[in-house]
Specification:
CATH class: Alpha Beta
Number of helices: 2
Distance between the termini: 33 Å
Helix content: 10-25%
Structural class: alpha/beta
Shape: globular
CATH topology: Rossmann fold
Number of domains: 1
Strand order of the largest sheet: 5-2-1-6
Largest sheet: 4 strands, parallel
CATH architecture: 3-Layer(aba) Sandwich
Order of helices and strands: EHEEEHEE
Length: 116
């Protein structure tokens, strides 16, 4: 990775258990394989950001969403990671339970899903 490159990790359903929306105050328990992967990336000097739709409303249900997510990170052994919903040129990977990867410049999915 180059300086400035970062890995995006979705919160709900990827890093934290998610079954349905319970409000901005609720973040599920960590998904341990992903939590350990993030810790490993950080230990290797990689930059990781939480990439979440929750940031479309940064102040929701009377809470500061960014701070609440960063508090969750600290409770589960992570640093106060940057939290965003903005993709930029330096994001090199996105780990997300809803993403479909496509082959660059083709529009073709890497793997077919049931929703084609």
């Amino acid at each position: 990775m180059l300086k400035g490159d970062w890995i995006g990790v979705d919160l709900d359903g990827t890093l934290a258990h998610y079954d349905h929306w319970r409000g901005a105050h609720h973040i599920g328990e960590p998904i341990f394989p992903m939590l350990e992967r993030v810790k490993s990336w950080l230990a290797a000097g990689k930059t990781v950001k939480i990439f979440t739709a929750r940031m479309t409303e940064p102040h929701c249900d009377g809470i500061d969403v960014r701070q609440h997510i960063q508090d969750w990170c600290e409770r589960h052994g992570l640093p106060r990671l940057e939290v965003t919903n903005v993709k930029d040129y330096w994001m090199v990977e996105l780990w997300d339970d809803r993403a479909v990867q496509v082959i660059m410049n083709t529009g073709e999915p890497v793997r077919r899903s049931d929703t084609n």
